[in-house]
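help with this:

***
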Amino acid sequence: MKIDYEEAKRRLRQIMPMGLTAETEGREPGKMSLENAICFATGEPPGEEPSCVAELDLEYSTILSSAGWSSDLVRGEALLPLVIAQLGTTDTDRETWADQLVLGTVKRVLPLALDAVDMTDHAQACRSVETFDDAKKVLKAAENSLAAAKGTLASAYALSAVAAAATAVDDTDVASAASATVYCSNAVFHASGASARDALLREAVAVALDAYALTSNKEPSKESHKQSVALHDIRAHIEQLILSHKKARESGATMCDVSIVINQLTEILAMLDR
């Protein structure tokens, strides 16, 4: 199915400010889940995963959508730019985007939760990380301090957020990064209220958008690029083979060298097997 992305964006800008729900059954504007809103905008059947959004990207946005936003209207308005950025990510390389997203979660989202539970030194340490190795050390220290601290509901959520972020860093796991964000949002909610939770979730959206801007979500995957190059080479070989036969006929030859043809076809088959 060919998707008109400009039309899809126009529809998303119409329906998402009407609200998104955390449920999956709604089929009407204002009562749709994130997945159904994308399907509605692209003309795909509701209730299915949108074909134009990469699995990692969709998983991240749906987990964020499931968080405790202050209202469906706020959820829809805040997630609109993220959903638009995700269109067309299917069959593109997500590795660099995932790296940027995970690091951005540690540097920009987690500190908000740590500040909310008075772990300001650990929050600043998270803001300073530059590599995955840095992040592992910083998260381990934060986890130890939270585990030893006097327990509140906010600090318990912060501890869960740090543990999820550690998993995200260890495995470059986008879903764990999203889960860490949800735990962070719960921590700041219990420490500071609903507006602080919305602000943190908006920051998570900004992290994802910055990752798109840095990596370009239209970058073809290595596998797709390899296939494109192979097909181009195969086409060139076939065209050359046809040209050779035409020249042989024009020169009056009644038959061509069978061994040459076999060798050329063997080369083509080898390309197809790559």
User: Anything to note?
Assistant: Residues 95-208 form one domain.
